[in-house]
Amino acid sequence: MPDVLTLALVGVVPIGIAFVLLAGFRWSAARAMGVGWLLAAGIGLTYWSMEPTWLVASAVYGALQAVDIILIVFGAILLMNYLEGSGAIATIRWYFGQIEGDRRIQVLLIGLGFMTIIEGAAGFGTPGALAAPLFIGLGFPPLAAAVFGLYFNAPNPPFGAAGTPVIGGTGAVIDPALSGSVSVSEFLSMVSAWTGVITGLTYVFWGLLGVFFLTYWFGSGDGERSIGAAMRSTLPIAPFALVLGVVTGGTQLVIAWFVGPALPDIAAGFVVLGIGLLLANNDILIPDDQWDFPEESTWSDTWLGGLDLDEVSRDQPKQEMSVLLAWTPYLLVALALLVTRWPDLTVAGVAVLDWIQSFSVGLDSILGTELGYTLQYLYLPGTMPFIPIAILTGFLHKMDTTQMGEAWRRSIQQIAPAALTLIIAVSMTQIMIQSQTNTADLLGMMEALSRALAMGAGGLLPLISPWIGAIGSFMTGSNTSSNILFSVLQYNAAETVGVSRVIAVSLQNVGGGLGNMVSVLNVAAICGVVGITGREGDLLRKAIIPMALFAVFAGLFGMLLTYVLVPGLF
Predict the structure, then answer these.
(1) How do strand 361-363 and strand 373-375 relate by DSSP bridges?
(2) What is the model's pTM?
């Protein structure tokens, strides 16, 4: 029988080849994962001697699991397109242009508040795509707009799109690994809670660190950087930044711990935005001297991303409705998620959460195997509340049928390539997981990879786990996809080493978020949004620094949790 390392080397081929095609040859995710799927199926049939019926059933099971994710993403995109079409997003952008002129305060309010709300409601690159043009409209250099459109989209993706990375990512693949030790919902609740602990603590200093990078990287137009000057510009805003960081992280942690993964970002974003605006409007903790960028005439070619000053888009959005009305759909989403996710809420003696989860459709058996599928359509954030509230938005914002039809058309166009990628990726992952059932009596592909990881990392696994998650999102551009690929790997490796499986998968989830900062796809997308395509290298050289700091911090904190604070955690 082949040893573990041999099995791992063969088993890594589908993922390894897909990653090489993605990053090295710039193939689309769907094409690269398609090759990975064919390799996984071929290796499963030949080397692992999987029964053809079992392999097909595993592939179908994965494709059906992907439907849950697709519905969430579609609902989030649909709501966003309704808001774009109605003028709500333009109104929100206009509002930010009327508030505090200090660039440090602007970056904190937009980064910690606005972007966190958008990540919680939409995810999948939307925060950066909306925030970067907003930064440019406020007078940020194009490179700065791109950098901070990525920077503040790092601690929040683990709970993005109403918890899709946890619910649809880890939740789509973790069941076989649990082997009945705990239910999937119980395990996901624990992952949500401990992810919230890690990202919540990160948020305490993330805003302050962001201000330091803002003043260090963009404090002098001639390219001369000074740590001392950056510190002098950062310290006066430190009380404001730390208060907002504590509020963001504390809210995210509490909601993640007590409610679950669907609401932490939306709740944290609204709370910190409200408190931040209250402090700013009343000059509480606000420095006397405003900080601004140098004169535009001194901006370097790097800052401008190769553009001339007159090429930089300074479009000024207009107020098209009341600010409260513009925010109303997001407030309704937050309220609906709170009501439908609160664990102990009862109405007329009926437990709301249990009642919602009781509505389901599915298959008891796929191709006569033990694999089955269930869709809880009232519990899934895409079908409840995203799509209903998107439709309601059309009436609240008085959109005509043409505008509403355009929102649906654009959403279908946007979801199609993502849907294909997700179906292939989850299907491939399930083939690799289910290869443990084979006639050759071999360890499954994912189990072999997990044991090889455990042998290599040993007791340092918590230190390595965030980097694995980051590699996944670096290649795929998605926290959810990273979790689909590596949640089981991390779980099994932790089980083999004898450390907390919850902490390992939570660190995987956190790593999947921080990897978004340097993802090939996200970097290219945001450069395209701000008009500096071709300058991806300039952006990546800056983004990789906070990404590495976050990964090191998460790994060290994971070690502390594993061996000191909660050593007996599941």
Answers:
(1) antiparallel
(2) 0.82
